[in-house]
Write a structure and sequence with these properties.
The model has no long low-confidence stretch (mean pLDDT 85). The protein has 2 domains: 71 residues, no CATH class; 87 residues, Alpha-Beta Plaits, CATH 3.30.70.1350. It starts with 7 loop residues before the first helix and ends in a 6-residue tail after the last strand. The longest helix is centred in the first third of the chain and has 26 residues. β3 and β4 form a beta hairpin. The protein contains 5 helices and 5 strands.
Length: 178
C-alpha cells in the first residue's frame, strides 16, 4: 500500500485560470445580450488576431509558452510524487497496512530524543535513508551516536516498514574548553 500525493496545486491553478476565462466570456456574453458595451469586445479581439500571421514573434512566443506549460502539467500528472503512506511489512497476513511518512518521521525523532543525553533531535527521511542529527549538552559524546542508532533501529523493528531506511546519525556537542 503506497499512497501517492494528490496533484491538487496544479489542478487548482488550471481550474482557476479556466474559471477566470469562463467568467470573462460569460460576463461579455451577458453584457451583449443586455445591449451594453461588453467588457471584452469580440470585434476588437478578432481584428487583433486577424492582423497577426503565423510567423510573427508574439504567435511563436505564445505557442512556446503554452507548449511548455502543457508539458509541465503533463509531467506533474505522469511522474509519481513521494509516497505519503509507506507500506509496512506484511508478516504472513493478507492485510495491507501503512504508516504516514510524517508519522514515521515523528516517531523516529521522538525515539532519538528519548535517548539519555540527547537534548534535541532533527530527522529527515530521504530515499531509503533516515538522517538524524542529535544535539547534546555533554562535553563527551562518545557512544551517543551508536545509542541513538540502536534505539531507532529497535523502533524500526517494532514498526516494521516494508523498506527499512538506513540510519545515519550525527551528533552535535558543545566545543570542549581547552
Amino acid at each position: 500500500m503506497i499512497r501517492r500525493p494528490r496533484r491538487t496545486v496544479p489542478a487548482t491553478l488550471v481550474s482557476l485560470v479556466l474559471l477566470g476565462i469562463c467568467v470573462l466570456v460569460a460576463t461579455s456574453a451577458i453584457q451583449l445580450l443586455l445591449g451594453e458595451r461588453p467588457l471584452l469586445s469580440y470585434a476588437k479581439a478578432a481584428s487583433a488576431l486577424h492582423e497577426l500571421s503565423w510567423n510573427e514573434a508574439p504567435v511563436a512566443v505564445g505557442g512556446v509558452v503554452l507548449a511548455a506549460l502543457g508539458l509541465v502539467l503533463v509531467l506533474f500528472a505522469v511522474l509519481p510524487g513521494r509516497p505519503v503512506v509507506l507500506p509496512l511489512a506484511a508478516a504472513g497476513s493478507s492485510l495491507d497496512s501503512g504508516a504516514t511518512r510524517r508519522g514515521l518521521r515523528a516517531d523516529m525523532r521522538s525515539t532519538a530524543a528519548a535517548v539519555d543525553g540527547v537534548s534535541g533531535a532533527k530527522l529527515t527521511l530521504h530515499k531509503g535513508r533516515a538522517s538524524v542529527r542529535v544535539t547534546t549538552n555533554r562535553t563527551n559524546s562518545d557512544g551517543l551516536a551508536e545509542a541513538v542508532r540502536t534505539a531507532i533501529e529497535q523502533r524500526l523493528d517494532e514498526v516494521a516498514p516494508a523498506r527499512r531506511p538506513k540510519v545515519r546519525v550525527r551528533v552535535s556537542a558543545p566545543r570542549r574548553d581547552r
